[in-house]
């Protein structure tokens, strides 16, 4: 994102009067409230983050229109898309769309495309409009929402999902995995805000981190557990040396993307059976076998890939007929449980290179930020990457919405820090 202050996010110089002004003010409150209440919403309905993100985006856009700021918003959006980061992102979007043309199941590909990119669109709109508008009260509401969501889920887990059973609602414990991951990605953002407050704010940051950690530890989400530790470790390291951490991250990302087609073979060679036996509950052996299967599929079409979102039906494609017989069955697991492998399998080397370009440009921008914001940004990247490399499918709308919301909050925290610095000069 551009480091300049968003014109569309500033109050318009030509203020609306009367009812229009009150309506605009109410819509800004709805936008901030929807983003802040997302954690509680996810704890109740575990795929609802796109609804909250979409409500926030539509409300903010309507407020801008009422205030007469639509031309400024469109100009700012165009300006951000004209940056190297924006152009690379647009190229990735275009490649995802074009790849549907050679997908053997274009309906599945179109559905995945819409689910993922709609959440990205909502997040982009909010990133342009909202950061300069975000209030301190909204951040405190988000902190309270995260705490309530964590407590709600711990109570449910501690009582064997008694409330959901009484209400006749789905009582499966794993439905809390998604809201746990949402808490994980929001934690470094809140840390960036709370740690620069007074003593109470810093105490709240520590308390919230402990609460989220306990909730994640009690859940069934191994991905959230791994991601949370990555968040904590990278946040601490980045507070000391953010540029060094950013450099190390760049090297790691290059290695991960470049080696993705071979991760199954590497893991199969380097990880002994004894380790797999100790990690049986986390299905480490299963993941290696899945990576071997999708790695074989990548080798059959490494340039173009099978088409965006094709992974759920990869076992039914022509590529599956060309892979080794022992690798065909696990092509039907839904996705490779590794975003880098999924990008290679669906979008080929072109998609992989564009993804790496986006990541490296992001890291370059992060390295120039204030220390606390850089630490939160790197921690957010670490957590999402840890999850993406062992967890769910890459294009799920709820995940894009949760991460997108965290980025919007992070931009708001950065804007608040910049304002704080300017007022103290």
TrEMBL record:
Note whether Transmembrane helix occurs among the keywords: yes
Q: Where in the cell is it found?
A: Membrane
InterPro entries for the chain: O-antigen_ligase-rel_domated (IPR007016), WaaL-like (IPR051533)
Membrane topology classification: Multi-pass membrane protein
Q: Where is this region: Disordered?
A: 1-20
The organism's lineage is: Bacteria, Pseudomonadati, Pseudomonadota, Alphaproteobacteria, Hyphomicrobiales
GO CC terms on record? membrane
Protein name as annotated: O-antigen ligase family protein
Species this chain originates from:
Microvirga brassicacearum
- GO MF terms on file? ligase activity
Q: Where are the transmembrane segments?
A: 26-45, 51-70, 82-102, 108-131, 138-155, 175-195, 200-217, 223-240, 247-266, 339-360, 372-391, 397-417
**What's in the keyword line of the UniProt record?**
Ligase, Membrane, Transmembrane, Transmembrane helix
**Signal peptide bounds:** none
Instruction: Return any one Pfam family short name.
Output: Wzy_C
- What are the O-antigen ligase-related domain coordinates in residue numbering? 208-355
């Amino acid at each position: 994102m551009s480091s300049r202050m968003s014109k569309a996010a500033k109050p318009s110089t030509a203020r609306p009067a009367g009812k229009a002004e009150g309506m605009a003010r109410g819509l800004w409150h709805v936008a901030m409230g929807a983003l802040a209440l997302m954690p509680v919403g996810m704890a109740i309905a575990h795929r609802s983050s796109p609804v909250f993100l979409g409500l926030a985006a539509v409300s903010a856009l309507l407020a801008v229109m009422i205030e007469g700021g639509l031309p400024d918003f469109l100009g700012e959006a165009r300006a951000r898309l004209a940056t190297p980061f924006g152009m690379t992102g647009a190229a990735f979007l275009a490649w995802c769309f074009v790849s549907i043309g050679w997908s053997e199941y274009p309906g599945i590909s179109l559905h995945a495309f819409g689910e993922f990119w709609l959440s990205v669109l909502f997040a982009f709109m909010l990133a342009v409009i909202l950061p300069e508008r975000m209030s301190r009260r909204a951040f405190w509401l988000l902190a309270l929402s995260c705490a309530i969501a964590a407590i709600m889920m711990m109570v449910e887990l501690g009582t064997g999902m008694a409330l959901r059973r009484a209400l006749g609602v789905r009582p499966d414990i794993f439905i809390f995995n998604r809201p746990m991951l949402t808490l994980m990605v929001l934690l470094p953002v809140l840390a960036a805000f709370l740690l620069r407050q007074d003593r109470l704010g810093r105490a709240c940051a520590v308390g919230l981190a402990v609460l989220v950690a306990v909730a994640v530890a009690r859940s069934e989400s191994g991905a959230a557990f791994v991601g949370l530790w990555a968040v904590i470790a990278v946040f601490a390291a980045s507070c000391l040396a953010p540029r060094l951490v950013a450099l190390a991250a760049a090297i790691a990302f290059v290695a991960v993307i470049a080696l993705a087609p071979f991760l199954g073979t590497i893991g199969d060679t380097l990880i002994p059976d004894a380790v797999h036996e100790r990690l049986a509950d986390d299905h480490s052996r299963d993941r290696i076998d899945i990576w071997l299967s999708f790695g074989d599929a990548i080798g059959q079409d490494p340039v173009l890939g099978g088409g965006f979102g094709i992974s759920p039906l990869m076992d039914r494609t022509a590529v599956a007929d060309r892979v080794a017989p022992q690798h065909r069955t696990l092509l039907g697991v839904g996705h490779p449980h590794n975003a880098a492998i999924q990008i290679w399998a669906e979008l080929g080397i072109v998609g992989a290179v564009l993804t790496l370009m986006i990541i490296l440009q992001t890291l370059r921008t992060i390295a120039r930020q204030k220390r606390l914001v850089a630490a939160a940004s790197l921690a957010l990247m670490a957590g999402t990457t840890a999850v993406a490399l062992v967890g769910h499918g890459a294009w799920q709308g709820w995940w894009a919405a949760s991460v997108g919301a965290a980025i919007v909050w992070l931009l708001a925290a950065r804007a608040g820090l910049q304002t704080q610095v300017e007022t103290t000069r």
